[in-house]
Amino acid sequence: MALDPQALARVAHLARLHLDPTDSAALTDRLNSILDMVNQLQDANVGDVAPMAHPMDVAQTLRADVVTEGDIRAIVQPLAPATEDGCYLVPRVIE
After folding, report:
1. Which are the contacts of 83, defined by CB distance < 8 A and separation ≥ 6?
2. Is 0.90 surpassed by the pTM of this model?
3. Residue 1: which of 45, 41, 34 has the closest Cα?
């Protein structure tokens, strides 16, 4: 897929970008070279490659799932404008 200056102008208009007409040809060439590189990547044989979350073989170290803060509901709920049965009451948004 190659871009022409008219397609580039349409994309710039849709993205609400100002495109200087004198830079249009150079930008079109640069974007076409990027698209050519993406097309080369599409031709790569990756059928035997397993999906991975990280390019390095690392494991995510996780901390222990331990409660570090106590229950402070009794402290903060009196600060709220309105509560009922341990829940915060807020104004209705959808009618």
Report:
1. 77, 89
2. no
3. 34
